[in-house]
Structures are given as C-alpha cells and as structure tokens.
Amino acid sequence: MPINYYIFLAIILFCIGVTGVLTRRNAIIIFMCIELMLNSVNLLLVAFSKMHHARALAAGAANTTAGIEAQLFVFFIMVVAAAEVAVGLAIIVMMYRNTHSVDINFLNRLKN
Amino acid sequence: MSNLSQLAWLVPIFPLIGFLINGLGRNYLSKTLVGIIGSGALLLSFITSVLIFNKVSAGELLIGEAGVYFDFIKFGSFNIPFAFQIDQLTSIFLLVITGVGFLIHVYSTSYMHEETKAHFARYFAYLNLFVFSMLLLVMGANYVIMFIGWEGVGLCSYLLIGYWFKNNDYTNAAKKAFVMNRIGDLGFLIAIFYLIQHFGTTTYIDIFSQAKTEGSSSLITIITLCLFVGAMGKSAQLPLYTWLPDAMAGPTPVSALIHAATMVTAGIYMIARSNVLYALAPSTMSLVAIVGLLTAVFAASIALKQNDIKKVLAYSTVSQLGYMFLGLGVGAFTGAVFHVMTHAFFKALLFLGAGSVIHAMHHQQDMRHYGGLKKYMPVTNITMLIGCLAIAGIPPFSGFFSKDEILIAAYAANPIYYVIGLFGALMTAFYMFRMYTMTFLGGFRGDHHHLPHESPKPMTFALVVLAILAAVAGFIGLPELFTHNPEGHKLANYLAPVFKDGEALLAKHAHPDHTTEWILLAVSVGLIVAVILWAVKTYKVYKLENDAEPQGFSKILANKWYVDEIYDAVIIKPILAIGDFFGKVIETKGIDKAVNGVGKAINFGSRKFRYLQSGNVGNYILIMIVAIIILVRILFYLPMS
Predict the structure, then answer these.
(1) Domain range summary for chain B, segments of one domain joined by +
(2) Contacts of A107 in chain B (CB under 8 A)
(3) Cβ–Cβ gap B618/A22 under 8 Å
(4) Fold observed for domain A3-102
(5) Over the stretch B389-411, which tens digit does the pLDDT of each residue have?
(6) A31 CB contacts (<8 Å, ≥6 apart)?
(7) What is the interface pTM, i.e. ipTM, of the complex?
(8) What pTM, to 2 d.p., does this model score?
C-alpha cells in the first residue's frame, strides 16, 4: 500500500483528536482524544519506518536495519503512554472525587 | 626636602586648622575664643611668611622637585604633583595676604560682634578657609594647584557675600558673583587643558622653559587669552566686572579682604606668574592693556556718581585693578605687583575705614546722610584721609609711586594709554575726595539723636597699622628718577629673578628720558591736586535738600551705564525665556507626553490582553493550535538556511 494512505489516516485521526480536545468538555473523552493523537503519530512512525526499510532493501542493502529505530520508538512511546494513562486517570479520579464532575470547564478557578 | 619646604606647608595649614576648629565648634566655642583662634591662625601664618621672606631674600628658593610633597594626580607618564613653589613673587604675596588678612581678622572680631555665637564662628571659619585657599593659589607650583585655590577663594567669596543669607538680595549678589566667576573659570580650565595637551605638564618652570625654547605660536596666544578670561572673571574686568560692586553685600571686612586686597588680585598674580607665556603673545598683551585701561576709566566714571560709600570703593577697586592690568599689558610686571601691594594696603584701609563709619552710623551706607564725621571719629578720619591721598596718587604716599610706575610704563608703550590712564587717575582723585568730603567734612546730616562715635580699639588698631603701611609702602619702589640709581627700586630688584625671562622676551620700549618723566609727574600731580581741591570745594557745601535727581549724562553714570540692565535684557532674559520654553513646551508637551504615553499604552494594552487569560483550557489549546499552524506555515515559506 502506498504511504499516502497511512499519512491520510494519521492526519484524519489526529484531526479527530484535536477536534475532540477542543470541543468536548468531558475530561475522559478529552483524554481519549489525546490518546488518539498520540497513536496517530505512532501510526505515522511505523509507516515511515516501514517505508524507509523497504527503500533500503530495494536499494540492494541485504541485511539493513534502516528505519528500525522508529519501531523501537513506537514501543517506547506506548510504554510511556501507558504510564501516562495511569497518571491521567488518577488525576481524573481525584478530580471527580473533589468536584463530583469530570467537566473541565468546571476547573477554571485559576481565572482571575 | 629642604628647610624651606618644611616651613612652607605651615603657612596654609594654620588657617585650615582654624577653619576646622571654628567651623566644627561653632556652637560650642565662645566668641572670644573664636576670635583668638581665627586671628591667631593668621598671626602664625604671618610669622611663618616673614621667616620664609627672610630665607627667600637670602637667596633660598623652593622650586621644582624640592617643592613636591606627594603625587596628586598620576596616570601613565603624566603626573601632577602636589607641590609648592616659593619664590620672590610668592613670598611678597604671602606677606600681603597673611599680613592684611591678620589685620582684617582683628578688625572683624570687633566689627562682627553683634552676630550670634554660631554665626560669628561661621564667619571666622569662612574667612580662614578663604585665606587657606588664597595661600594655596599663590603657593602652588603648577596651574592645577592654583586652580584649586582659585575655586576655593571663589567659593569663600560666595559664602561670605551671602553671609547674611536671610536677605534675598544678598544671596542673589552671591549667586551673581559665583556665576560670573564660573564664566572666567571656564577660560582658565580650557587654558589648563591646552597646556596639558601641548606641554604634557602643568608645572610652571617646565612650561616656561619649554615655551621659551619653542618661541611664540598661535597656541600660546590662545592659552594666554583663555587665562586672561579667567583673570577677567576673578579680577572683575570688563565685561565680567558687575559682580564686584554687588559683592559689597557681604560684611565690610570681607569686602576689604576678599573684594579689594587679595582675591581680586589673583588674576594679576596669575598673569604675572605666567609672564613668560604672555611675553610670547604680544597680541594678548595689548588686549590685556586695553581691557585694563577701559575698565579703569569706565569703573572710575561710574564711581563719580555713586552715593553708597561701599559702592564708591567697589568701583574704585575695579578701576585700580584695571590699572594693574594696564601695567601687565605694557610689560611693567613689577609695577603691577607693586600696585597690587600698595593697593592691598590702602584699599583695605579705605574699606575698613568705611566699615568703621558704617559701624558708627548704625549700618547707614548712604553718604548723603553722613557729613562732618571728622569731629566724632578722629582716628578714622585721619586714616581715611591717608588712604584717599594714597589712592589719589599724592606723593609721598604709596599709591603715587605704584600708579606712577604703571603710567610711565604705559607712556613708554603708547602715549595715548598715558593720557587715558591719567584721565582715569583724575577721576579717581575726584570721587575719592567726593567720598571723603561727603563723609567727614561739612555739617552732620544724620540723625542727631544717634550721634556717631569712634570705633573700638581692635578696629582702630587695624586702621592705624594699615594707614602707616599705606603711607610708607611706596618707598620700597622708588623710581630711578628720584634715586638716580638703577638699583634704587628695591621691589624691582627683589622680583627681578621672577620677571627676567618675561622681560627679556618683550620688545623693550624706550624709557622716557628724565625731563619727560619730570614733566609727566608734575602735570599729573598738579592736575590731581587741582581736582582734589575742586572736589572738596564742591562737596563741602553739600546739602541733602539741594540734591536734585541726576539728569542727562550724570544720570547714566548714577545708573552705572545701565550695564546691569543691558546684561539683564541681552543675556539673562533670553536665557530665562529659553528655559521657560524648554520647561513649559518641550518638557510638558514633548518629554512628559512621550513618557506618559508609553505608560498609558502599556496599561491600555494589558487591559485588553487580559481577556486572553480566560481560564478556559479549550481556549488555550485552540490558541496554541492556531499558533502552531501559523508557525508551520511561516516555516514553509522561510528559506531553510
């Protein structure tokens, strides 16, 4: 499959994520949208990694490792994202306990 | 360190100590103690000066390296040492300053006795500080030390003119003196800068020896002109003389010491000291002579119509200083210094006598209310008469010899100088005897319930000593005409080593032969005597009732040629107008508007930008995304360098 498809898919996912973050007020949904953006980037990384690898092979380098770093990055990002989700959800839980709401517009006390 | 250098620093240190004690202890010391400390410091200085004079007469001098005490300003190869130079010229000035200064201190203990304790001590502190500065001025071995003393005497002059600082007119007079002097000082400073730039030193002997080998140049002319501007300010010459008559606002002994006997002669000292430089700049010399001559006649004409006794003396001082500059300008350096000396005696005497009269008349200074004081104040009368005869130039009193020496030298240079100078001398005789007659002769015109009385002992003591000096001081400078001996002029012989370089460089004017000189002498003395008799006759019958408002030319003279008014209109008013313009238009409309505008713009902007800080996270993120998109767009269009 051409790389374009992957890029378009990633852009669409990313834009959905951005729109979600901008428009929704529910903290959990915003959180999910952020994850969506993160994973769209992961998808891009993997796609480009595969592309570079294929190119290197096509250029005649037999046992090439070109583009392999991005796949490692993706795993790394996934691990960090998992930790982040744990922290983020914990914050949301604490927020719910304090305010009985997950509406982020409720949390504007820094204003003024 | 020679013996003389150990002695020299004592001379200024005594008045400095006196200044510190009196100045710091003004609230604690009794008046008697203050008087003793103040006068005692001067007496010690005077004794030291006499010792120095003896050593100098014996041929011991303090010149060059021997006079260096410490390095004052030093950077790189350039060095201004704190050094004294004691030669014949300095030793004469030391004697005059400390001697006359001492007498005036003694006089002041009595004259200022009505002041409160703290003010009395303040007065003596200032007076001592003045003497200290003046000594520094004449003792310094380079122009920078001279400049320090120069500024010091200017400061003390300011402080003492404004001594009665509660009177607004007096403080204005003090300010005027200060500003006028500053104008002159600027010239002096520029001259010092030129000297440093060209000669790389400010020490007299180095500069003079270097200048002598280099010969005259336009730079020397510029330097001497700048120095002369300084002298004009300090010695009250045209056009910077107007501060001196106003300086009479100070206590009378101050007028005697600072504005007659010593400080105003600083300009003469400076030019006499720089005689080598001046001899190399003939055009400056002629300018000095012309300015001096004009000042002499101009001030004398004003003095003819003044009614304030101190104003008469003030203008007479300006006029006599003009004669000294005339002497310097025609190359008669000795004559100028001689006149400084005799003038110090008789003018201090006249001022102190005037002070004695003012004291007796309860601070009435208007001569129209005097008259017939001869009967009440015998000592003051006799001493004042001697002073008047001396300044008028009647032989054998001192003023005759010194003024004659200058006039003869002026005749040798240019007979026109002599004629104008003689005209001024006649006016001098007239106004001095107008003053004398209005004050001492005729009938008493004052308040008959408060009859005047003779002044106390310390005042008459000073008067008598000065009168003796004014009478006999002329004999140290007898002209060759009388003695038929070129060595007869003691002062000239004594000062010869100081002036020989300068005089050698000058074009020699043929000294008039003896017959001419006799004729000139006889003419001048005859005319002066006639003028004196005329003045006495006119003003002996002076009556307050007959006094009409001056008309025509005498009105111009009575109003001092309207010089103050002209200065006011030409210089002061425009400056004030410019200041007003800058203050009201540029400052308020321009600078203030700009500064306030910046503040207002920031205030307004921040009020508007505040709404961005809504606290709504969604908004923040939206702004962030929009900004990122814009940045990315910009990045695409920018060349990737």
Answers:
(1) 1-141, 142-558, 566-637
(2) 617
(3) yes
(4) Helix Hairpins (1.10.287)
(5) 999 888 888 888 888 888 888 88
(6) A85, A88, A89, A92
(7) 0.71
(8) 0.78
